[in-house]
Fold MarR family transcriptional regulator.
Amino acid sequence: MKDSIGTQRPPDPPIGQFLTYRLARVQAKLNAQANRLLKDCAGLTLTQWRLIALIGANGRNTAAQLSRYAAMDKGLISRNLKALGEENLVRIIRDTEDNRLQHLELTAEGRALFESTLPRMQARQKALRDRLDEEEVSAFLATLDKLEQAAEDPDLG
């Protein structure tokens, strides 16, 4: 079997047919590609950009809300928010009634970075979608919805 550049590669192991393995492999490649793009154009990691994008699109949030939206680990979110705060991209505001709660919003610099990178990330998404026809996109999104529901089914765990 040859890869995309014509180099001989070993056959896929039996787990190569596992849906979760294939999804993880594709996700890792797409994430690495996005990380390179974001590092070059904005000096951000993909996780940092996703947090900025969620706050930029939804306004003031908490780390718990971001964790639910993005299905990201709270520790990963916390470490990245700390770095974004140190870079003056995200403002972290302690709740006056509950000291454990922190409200998050973009600074002017964070908003400018979000607005300057969003078109590039949207163009990347369009380029990815353009690899599929409308029927494939529709089927793929429906498949992801079904798999996400299955991931929430306690009987499958």
